[in-house]
Amino acid sequence: MGIRAATLIAALSSAICMSFAAQAFETSAKSAIVLDLGTDLTLMEKNADMALPPASMSKLMTLNMTFEALEDGRLSLDQRLPVSEAAQAYGGSTMFLNTRDRVSVEDLIRGVIVLSGNDSSAVLAEAISPDGTERGFAQMMNERAKDLGMTNSTFANSNGWPAAGQRMSMRDLALLAKRLITVFPQYYGYFAETEFAFDNRAPDNRFNRNPLLKLNIGADGLKTGHTSEAGYGLVGSAKQGTRRIVFVMSGLGTQQDRASESERIANWAFRQFAEQQLAEQGVIMAEAEVWMGTAAKVGLAATEDIKVLVPVLKKDGVTAKITYQGPLEAPIKAGDKVAELIVNVPGIGDATHDLVATETINSGGFMVRVRTAATVLFRQLTGQAATLF
């Protein structure tokens, strides 16, 4: 037995012949990354693993910790939390909280997302922290970041206030954004809110700073950031049709630079790539040979719809192949993983998808074993190919 390739059905071959090559995207951001969530492909990156001051974009980690606490019951949305002197003392973007306040967790979340509240971030941090301090919460953030595979992130506080050693990479921020979108869809709607007038304390400060939310390009999140050290940055996400992208950038010179560059990068990601469906869940794509079974072949199908993202400018030839260790030995159960579909998009790389058997093939009886033995003997004597069953 050895590695074998199954013949792809005609429908798949015709779909993948619509192939193109990408044009590189040049950005003025110091560091950037663009992901397509549906295909889990990186469309562009620039210094994506460079650890940089994250400014308020690091509040996404505080929100992740808050959502986790909501899901396991440590917090509830209607729970009211006290405001400490340490939280009240924060300057910059705030909810204008004071120590007389007891604020609901939901309002604090909206304060973090819409108003970029440094004080609301600290209130949530102190409530979740094992020792009730923001320092203790930062240590929790660091430990959780490692668990999540964020290899270039170090936190010193809950809100991105400038601090020695506080760093995040754009890749880590993209990973975090993807998690917030896919793991916590029940809370993701907060990111699309354009204004939040908490207690009407600062009417002029009620607007979301995300410049993309009003542009009608499908943007619905996530977080801006700015300090003099970090420059202007954005963690953005947008959805058009069935496609969703996440893009992260940092180190832009002005607020206007951030707005124009983020719009430009979103438009590029949607316009320069097209999504093609290669396989439909459960539909037979090809057949694999079976050894010593009640049938000579078994159908191969994907466990979910398989889509590929291809650049739309220059035809270069997307290739796809099905491989399996074969012939497959019976018995085989319907749903067993038995093969892989490997799709290569030039300029992007390979994507591998599991394929499963579409039916159960039992072990053959006496006559099947006799015919199989005869077939093997015939091949050995003549060197010719013969049918196994």
TrEMBL record:
Gene3D superfamilies: D-Ala-D-Ala carboxypeptidase, C-terminal domain, DD-peptidase/beta-lactamase superfamily. SMART domains: PBP5_C. Residues 273-363 form the Peptidase S11 D-Ala-D-Ala carboxypeptidase A C-terminal domain. The active site is at S56, K59, S116. Pfam families: PBP5_C, Peptidase_S11. It catalyses: Preferential cleavage: (Ac)2-L-Lys-D-Ala-|-D-Ala. Also transpeptidation of peptidyl-alanyl moieties that are N-acyl substituents of D-alanine. Pathway: Cell wall biogenesis; peptidoglycan biosynthesis. GO terms for molecular function: serine-type D-Ala-D-Ala carboxypeptidase activity. Keywords: Carboxypeptidase, Cell shape, Cell wall biogenesis/degradation, Hydrolase, Peptidoglycan synthesis, Protease, Signal. It is an enzyme of class 3 (hydrolase). This is serine-type D-Ala-D-Ala carboxypeptidase. It comes from Litoreibacter ascidiaceicola.
